[in-house]
Amino acid sequence: MADSALELIRALKASSDPPSLNGPSKIQLAQDGWNNASLYMPNKAETVLEWLLTRLLKDKNKDVSTNPMADVRYWKLLNDILTSAFPPSSNTFSNPARIWMVPLLNRVPLAPMIVAFLNLCATNPESADRLHLTSLGLRSFSILWPLAAPKFTQDALLDCVGALLEYLSVLSCKPLLEGDEHRTALANFVLSISSSYRESLGNAAHKKKICSSFMQHHLRHWLTCVSLQSGDLQDDEVLSSIYDIGVDTIFNVDVLRVAYEQQAQTSLDSSLAGLMSQVPSIVLICLPRLFKSYIDISKKHRSALFGQGSKNIGITAAEQARAASMRFFATCDGLLRSTTNEEVWRTRLALLTIVDQEDLLSVSDDMSADVLRQIGELSIDSLSDAFQAGQSEMICVLLDTLSALSHIDYDLVPGALSRILPIISLVPNAMQSAIPYLGQLLSYHIKTRTVDTFTQAILTSFTKLPATTPTPQNTYQNASSSAVLNHRFLDQLSKAVHGFLTPGQVPDLTQSILRQLQSSLEDFEERASRTSKNDEGPRKKRKRERQSLSASDTDPDHAAVVFALMTSVAAVALTALPFNTVLEEVQQSVRSEIQEFYSKSVRGKLKKALKACLNDTSNVWGWQLVAISALRLRYYLINSSLVADNDTKTPSKLLSLLKLDDILPELRVEIYRTLLHEANVGRFAATTVFEDILQAIEKIGPTNKAAWTGELHRLSVDERSSDISVAGLHLLLDRWLPTLDTLVTPDQLKRLAELMLAVLPQESGSPSRRSQDALSLSSLFAKTLRNAQFWEMQNFRSAIVSLINEHTASMDNVQVQDILQQLLSGQQFGKGPNEEGSLQAVYDLLLYAPTEFLPRSVRTDLLKRALAADVTIGISVKGRDLQPEQQQRLITLREFMRRVFFHVGTVEHSAIQEYVIYLMDPPFSLTDDSSTFKHITLDLIEMHFRSLLSSAEKDKHAGIAKILESFIHSAAINAASNQSSSISSLREQSLVLLIDSIVDGYKLANFQEEVIQSLRNLWEHVFSLILSRMSALVSQETKETDLLSAGPVLNLWCRLLIFRRWLTIEGFSIPMFGQELARKFLSLKSDAAQDSSALPHSILAIALEELHTGKQHGEQLQFVVAIYLAFCVRSNSICRKDLDDCIISACKKLTVQDFSGVLNLVIDGLTKQGLEKTSLGDLIHLSGVLVHNAPEGTLKVTQEYVTRSLSLFVNVPLYTENTELANCALNFVAKYFNDRRYGRRKSLWLGHY
C-alpha cells in the first residue's frame, strides 16, 4: 500500500504491472489508496478515475485473461468513485464534480470503452460472474453518459447503439423480461442511450447514411429485440425505446421522402428479404408492427413527405399517404410469398387487419386492389390444400384472412360463395373462424338485399362437396357438424330471410328452394333405382359397371346426404319467409307451391323410404337418411302452417318402424317427434310413443352415465350406447311436457316418476367434465324439476306425490317422541327402519319442489316423516362418528324441514322440546365440521325456540321450561369453561340464539313469573361458569392461542350482559373486561390479529355493553371510540364491516346524553388533528355511521354536529388538501344529505362546500 500520494501516483504511472517485483498490482494499489481515508491526496477521485479510464481504454482489445474490462475489481472501484462523486439523490449537471469530470471525459473518449465492454459482455452473457460485471459497468456508464454523450459524434452513438443491440439480442433481453436483479442497471442505460441517440439523430444532416449503416450492420439485432414481448410496465418502456431507435432511423422523413420520390425499392426491402431467408420467424413477428409504424409516420408527416407536384394534381396528401402505405403493404406481402405456412398466414392476417382498421384501400387504387385480390386467390387455393391435408388450425387462419378481406371489400374475394362454401360445409372443427366469416358474407348480402342469392348459394354448395371423405356417412357427419348447419348461423340466416327478403324475392326464392329439393330427390331416386337394377344382374357385370363410375356419381347414399343437408337449410328458410310483406295473392301462390311440392314429392318419397326401411333396414342407410330429412321437413312445414297432412297411414308405419332395433338413432328421434306431434293434435295415441321412450330409459337403468351432446347426427349407432334414451327424454321433457301430463296413463307417469327418483341423486354428486358439457338423464330431470310449469301439471304432480308417500310411509311407524325421551333418559331402544338411501332420494326431489305446491296434508305427513328419518339416522350412529354420506342425508332432511317451517310460519309437532335438545346435543360426533350442517341445524333450533317462546306467552310454558332446565344441567355448558369441541360450540351457539330470540322479539312483562325465574336461574348459572373463564382470559398467564380461540366465549359473555339488562337483574358486580381484552388483542402480532378477525367485533360489543353498567361512564365512551380506531387499523374490509354493524346495533340503545358525548369525542379528535391521517379518515367514517343511525330524540344534536363538521371540513386545509380525507369528508356529506334532503338549505351558508 502506498504511504503517500506521490508514491501512489508513481506506482500508477509505472511501466510495469505490478510496479515492483512480487508487489501488489496497480488495481490493488488504487483500491487501497481510495479506501484509505488517512491518505491525503488532492483531487484523489480525479487522479484515480483518470488512471482507471485510461487503463480500460488502452487495454480494451487485449485477451480476456489480461483485459481489465473482464476484471470486476476495475468496475467495482470505478463504481465506488462515481457513486461517491455523484450520489443517487444529486443532480448530475449541478454537481461540483462535473467541473473536473467533463474535461476528463473529453480527454478519454467513453464511446470506444462502451462498445468494447458490451462486446465483451455478449460473450457468455448469462453466467453469474459476467452478469455481476455487467451490472457494475452499466451503473458506471449510466453516471458518465449524461456528461460524455453531448460530445459524441453520430457515428460513435450508432456504434454504441449497435453494440447494445447485439448484447441484448444475444441475451434475449432476459434481465428485462424475467425481473433479473440487473434489470434496473440495464434498463437505465438503455433509456439513456436511446434518448441521446434519438436526439442526435434528429439534428443529424446525413440521416440517409445513418439509415444505410443501421440496416447493413444492426437491423438483425434490432429486429431480434423487437420480436420480444413483455407485460411489465417498466419493460414495456425499455423495449419501446429500443423499438423507437430503429423506427426513427429507418422511417425518418428524409429517407421516406427519397424513397417516395424515386418510387424504387429501398434498402429496407432488400435487407428484410435477406433476413427473411435467414431468420424468418423474427421478421414475421416484426412485420405488422413495422407496417403500423410506417402508416403512423406517413400520416403524421404527410405534408412534408407528399408534395403537390404536377403529377399529383387533385390528389390530397392523405390519399398519397394511404397509397404509400399500401405500397409498403405490397412489399411486406412480397416477402411472405417466399414460403407458405401457418405462421406466414397469421402475419398476413395481422397486416390485413391493420389495412382494414386504418381504411387504407382507396377506390381509385387499382394496383393495391390487385394485390389484395391475389391474396384472396391464394387464400382460396391454400384453403383447399389445407382442407385436403386436414390442417384444422391452418383452415381457421385462412378463414380469418378471408373474413378480413371481405370486410375490406367484398369484391376482393371473387367467387367466394361457389368456391368456399363447399369447403366450409365439410369442416367440422372451425366454428370459431367459420361462423364469423359466414356472418360477414351474410352481412354483405343483407346490405345489398341479396339474401336470396346467398341462400341459394348455400343449397348449391351441397351439390359440390369435395370428395375427401371415405364414405357418405363421414360426409354427413362432417357436414352436419360444420358452421353452415350450426344452430347459431342458421338462426342468423332465419332472421335475415325474415327481415331482409324483399317482397319480389319471396316467390323466386321459394321456387328455387323447391326446385333444388326436387332435383335432389329425383337424383337420389334415380341412383337408388339404378343400384337396385345393378344388384339384380350378374355379379361380374355389376362389378364392372361399379368400377367404371365414381362413387359420388352412382352412390344413392351420396345423393341422400345432399338432400339431407339441403333440407336442414331449406326448412329454416321456408319457415322464415316474410309473408306479412307480400300481397295476399302472392302469399296464397307461395303456400300452394309449397303444399304441392310436399304432396307430390316429399310425402311420396317418405312413403317409399318407410317401405324400404321396413323391408330391410340393414342396407338402406340412404333411405333412412331420406326418411329423417322428409320427417324433419314435414315437421317444420306443418308447425309453421305452410302445409297440411291428414294422412293416417304414415303414423302407423312410423310406429311399425319404431319397433325395429337397427334403425338409425336420428331416425328414431324424428319418429318420436312426429308421433308426439300427431298425438298432440289428436291423430295418434301418445301412450305408444311414451312407452317406447320409457322402455329405452328403463333398459339402460338409472345408474347409467349416458350423455348426449345435443346434436342428433352424433347419436351413436352402437347398440350398447345409451344416448338415444337421453335424446328421447330430452325431446319429451323439453317440448312435449304438457302432452305428457294429459295424454299418457297414470301407470306410465308413475314409472317416469320412479325413474326420476332413481336417477336424480346422481345430480347432487360432483359431475364429471363430460356431464357438465353434455346432457344426461340426471341433468334433464333436474332441469324439469326446476320448471314451474312442471309443478302446475296436476296428473304428474299427483303421481310424484303418490310415489313419495309410498317411499316414506315406513316412517309413520317411528314414534319420535318416545325414542327421543328414551335417548335423553339413557334407556335402550330399538333401531328404526333402515331406508336412509331411498329417503334421501325422496327428499332430494322435494327440495326442487316449491313448498306451496304441496297439499297441506301431504306437507304435514312429509314433515313428520322427515323428523322420524332424522332421529332414525341419529340413533343409528349413537356414540360413533357421523360419516359424510349420513351428514348429507341429515342436511337434506333438515333443509326440507326448515323450508316447510319457514313457509308455514310456525313449528308444530309433538316432540318440539325433545327434538330441540336432540339437535343441540346430538348422540353422534362430527368428523367433518360442515358449516352447511351447522347453519341449517341452528336455523331449526332458532325456529323451535321462537315457537316455544310464543307458547310461553300464551301460558304454555312447559316446553320452554324444559329447554331452560336442559341448559342449566347440560354437560356441554359445564365443559365450555375448558374445552371447545364442535358439539359444545353447537350448544353455546344455541344459547346465543335463545338469548337473541328473547331479547329481540319478546318483552319481560309478557311472561309469567315462573318463566322469568327460570330465565334468571339460567343467567346466573351460565354467568358463574363463563365468568371464571373470562377472568382466566385477562390474567397474565393467558397464552396467545387461548385468546385467539376465545371468540365463542366472548360472544356468549356479551350476550349475557345484554340478557342481564333485559332481565333487569341487580345486585351483581359485573367486572369490566373490555379494556384488558383490547390491550391483549392489540399486543398480538399483525399476522395473528388478521387470522382472528372475529375478536375485534366481540371485544367492541363487550365494551359497548359495559356502558350500561354505569361505571366510569365518560372514560368508557372514550375507550369505545379509541378501540374502534385501533381495531380499524388492524382489520380488513370484512372485519371493518362487522365493527360498523356492532356500532349500528348499539346506537339505537344509546341515550341522548351518551350519543352526544360520543359525537363530541369524534369532533374533538377531528379538530385537534393529533391523529394520523388514516385514523382521521376512520373517525370521519365513524361519524357517518353514528349520524346515519342516530337514536330517537337526537335530531338537534345531530344537526349541530353536522354543522360543526362541515365548518371544520371547509376551514381546515388538511381536509381539502389531502385527497383521502377530502374523499372521506365528501362521502360523509353526500350520505347525510341524501338521507335528509330537507337539511340542504340550512347548510348552504357554509362556504358553498
UniProtKB/TrEMBL annotation:
Residues 524-553 are annotated as: Disordered. Residues 526-538 have a biased composition (Basic and acidic residues). InterPro entries: Ribosome_Biogenesis_Reg (IPR052609). It comes from the Eukaryota. This is Nucleolar 27S pre-rRNA processing Urb2/Npa2 C-terminal domain-containing protein. It comes from Somion occarium. The lineage of its organism: Eukaryota, Fungi, Dikarya, Basidiomycota, Agaricomycotina.
